[in-house]
Amino acid sequence: MSVIGYSELLKEIYGITPESLENEISLLLKSKPNKNKINLLNILVKKERSTISELLRSAGMNNTGGSFKSIKKFFEELVSLKILKKEGVGRRTYYSFKEESNLKKWLS
Amino acid sequence: MLKNLKKENIRPCSVDLRLGQIFKLSKTKLIDLEKNKFPKHKEIKLPYILKPGEYILARTIEELSQEKKKYACLLSARSRAFRIGLSVQTNFFGPYYSGQIAFGIKNISENNILLYKGMSIVQIAFFDIKGETIPVKHYFQFGRIL
User: How far apart are CA B107 and CA B92, in angstroms?
Assistant: First the structure.
């Protein structure tokens, strides 16, 4: 009988391993995250999908101009890193976490 | 494995659990396990001041959920409990148990101790089981206390 350690606990509870999470975080670091950006990801993970404007409004941030452009650039990078996915509905672009994202499992 | 847990409560090889509900046992003339004579219990609101010598039953916010892999689980007191004079009566959970985690708390100190929701005084460790186990149809809870 052996006691289950931290990495195995994470794997059992969240379906992630520290290594897979580290890989995703190292990818995320390439997109220069900051406190506001991480806060938006924390809000996004609780929603099925969201537009950038909705997220900025939920976070009490300005949803036009520079703030919008900066977050759009960040989210587009996360889409190219396969952490987020996007879908266009009419004129709106909705972002959501990829189902298999370890970061999603960790944040949620 | 565990429901309702907080990520930061995952420790190197255990998980800290939080106090969710507490129950007071009523006085009864005689407790007889053979005849299924048990004291009644009543939920008390948290926060609650536990007086010296007082014994209560408690339930954690987290729940065991062993749907996939089966482990043997050992609930034990955190060292902070005995440091403040709380004796925690804990339990061993077999591989097929899923459900609420109950334990007993007794104030063995000479001081009043404040119990509050989310207080972390117990931890659970999971153990791999060597060899085969046998399924259990149901877990018998004496008199369904909790």
Answer: 22
Between residues 5 and 64 of chain A, which touch chain B (CB distance below 8 Å)? 5-6, 9-10, 12-13
Contacts of B130 in chain A (CB under 8 A): 1
The confidence score (pLDDT) of residue A107 equals 79
Q: What is the CATH number of the domain that holds B108?
A: 2.70.40.10
Of A20, A13, A18, nearest to A83 by C-alpha is: A20
Q: pLDDT per residue over B45-77, tens digit each?
A: 999 999 999 999 999 999 988 776 778 999 999
Domain count, chain B: 1
Instruction: Let me know if residue A68 belongs to a domain.
Output: yes
Hey, are the CB atoms on B10 and A4 less than 8 Å from each other? no
Largest CA distance in chain B: 47
Q: How many beta-carbon pairs under 8 angstroms link A with B?
A: 39
DSSP B7: G
pLDDT score, position B21: 94
CB neighbour list of residue B97: distance below 8 Å, 6 or more residues apart: B64, B66, B73, B136, B139
Looking at the predicted structure, is the pLDDT value of residue B119 above 90? yes
